[in-house]
Design brief:
The protein is of the alpha/beta class. Helices cover 53% and strands 9% of the residues. The chain folds into 2 domains: 5-111 and 186-305, Rossmann fold (3-Layer(aba) Sandwich); 120-179, Histone, subunit A. It has a 6-stranded parallel beta sheet with strand order 3-2-4-1-5-6, with helices on both faces.
Length: 308
Amino acid sequence: MRTKMIMIVGVTASGKARLAFDLAQRLGAEILSVDSMKVYRRMDIGTAKASIEARQKVPYHMVDVVEPSESFSVGLFFEQATVAIEDIQSRGKPIVAVGGTALYIKALLYGLFEGPASDEKVRAELRARIEAEGSPVLHRELTEIDPPTADRVSPNDAKRIIRALEVYQLTGKPISSFQTQFDATEPLHDWTILGLRREKEAESHRINARVKRMIELGLVEEVRALLAEEAALSQQARCAIGYAELIGHVAGECDLDDAIELIKRNTRRLAKGQRTWFKTFRDIHWLELDPETSPEEVLAQAEPLIHT
């Protein structure tokens, strides 16, 4: 008997995690995190991980799987997530996948897209330019040649900027053109996909409130503790929204208020990119939510959409 496979998508701070937890409890399911930053240990507040108490009630997978000093990729995610899915299914448990990292979600749905192999000479040249000119300069170049990719990649994300520019230099085509092959591919599994959507103004309000709450919970102290560790943060971990801005603050580049406003702005920018990505997804059951919609009401809307 096939197990239920439910995927919940939406922009950051949309309420995905709460719905995933509520559904998992209701169905006796296990949760699969589809997030490029929740994989890092001790990066808890800034990634909005589920609490220890929640994880004691519901099993979570793909959370706390690598050290902050290590790099991680969509390929590693796909490999480990596939193992987790097989493990959950072998025990007859439903799966609730939840996340906002669109590339990871698409990999889970359709597999990995084939792009050109890396070229170390090209990468070395791009790394040297980032060292000399800064990643925002190369991000502006990416905006000219591949606006969809630039829209969802942070100007601080040197690794993904380098890969996108590398693909363009090697092929003359933007990396987003390779990723569109997902659109003609059948899903790997029979997922029921639920999407949470609010008006942009309401989403922005939720983002601002979340950033404020993260600061109150001790995000600055979490960043200081990570920077104090013997092993340096990987480039991927350092560029995570919330961490990159506060690393600059700790280094004396800006005061805390400015760093907080920058986190809010960059998170809203991320949400814009996520909205763009999700327009390319097929077969999503969108739940149109009001600012006043309670978690209980979201659950009530979601349950009838789950295949029996």
